[in-house]
Amino acid sequence: MLTSGFADIIEEIRQPLLSEFDWIVVEMAKRDGPLSLNPDGIWARLSRYLFRLRVPDRLSCDEQESLRRFAVRAWFWNLIRVGDMRQLIEAGYSDVQAMQVLAHIADRRGYSPSIEGCPDDY
C-alpha cells in the first residue's frame, strides 16, 4: 500500500521531456524576434512596408504557437510574466517544461529572465 502511494507521487513528479520539434520551435523563436508576437501590429506593419523586413506569421498549431511566444519572451525580455507562463501551461506544457526552456535560453543568453512573482533565488 505504501509503495503505491510513492509510485503515484513519482508519476506526478515525472514530466515528459520536450520533443525535438519543440526545441526547434524554441530556436526558431530567437530568429523570429519580438515583432512576431504581434504580426499585425503597427510596428510589424511599419517594419514590413517601410524597411521590407520579414515578419513571421503565427504557427498553425496553437500549442506550438504558445511555446514559440513564450520562447520569444524569454529570448528578448528580462521578465516572464505570470500570464506568459499560464498560456504555456494552458497549451498543455508543464511548469517543468517551461523551466527547461528557460534554462536552455539562459544557457545561450548568459543569464535567465526573471519570473514575475517568484523570489530571486528560485
How would you describe this structure to a colleague?
With 122 residues, the chain is mainly alpha-helical. The protein has one domain (19-115). The chain has helices spanning 2-13, 20-32, 42-50, 62-76, 82-90, 95-109; strands at 79-80, 114-115. It has a two-stranded parallel ribbon with strand order 1-2. Helix 4 runs antiparallel to helix 5 (82-90) and helix 4 (62-76) packs parallel to helix 6. It is globular and about 40 Å long. The mean pLDDT is 80.
What proportion strand?
under 5%
**Number of helices, where a helix is a run of at least 4 consecutive DSSP H or I residues:** 6
Head-to-tail CA distance between termini: 34 Å
Major pleated sheet: 2 strands, parallel
User: Structural class per helix/strand content?
Assistant: mainly alpha
Radius of gyration: 17 Å
Average pLDDT, to the nearest integer?
80
